[in-house]
Write a structure and sequence with these properties.
3 strands; alpha+beta; single chain; elongated; three-stranded antiparallel sheet
């Protein structure tokens, strides 16, 4: 997907969000040097439940540093 975003679509950055307690998703980020951007609340009103979400960013420049 990163190849598609940066090489084929010429994207400048890729943003990835996950629920704070989702360790499997967090492990996907580690090899690519995603940087933490922000944390925010998500409320699922139909379930009457609140979640904490985190957003991470990978820039095109950082992606190329990692793959070269």
């Amino acid at each position: 997907m990163l190849d598609l975003v940066f090489n084929k679509l010429n994207g400048k950055e890729f943003r990835y969000s996950l629920f704070k307690d989702n360790e499997k998703s967090r492990k996907l980020l580690k090899p690519y040097l995603f940087e933490f951007n922000k944390e925010y609340k998500i409320v699922k009103s139909w379930a009457n439940k609140e979640f904490i979400s985190e957003e991470f960013i990978l820039t095109k420049e950082e992606y190329y540093k990692k793959i070269l």
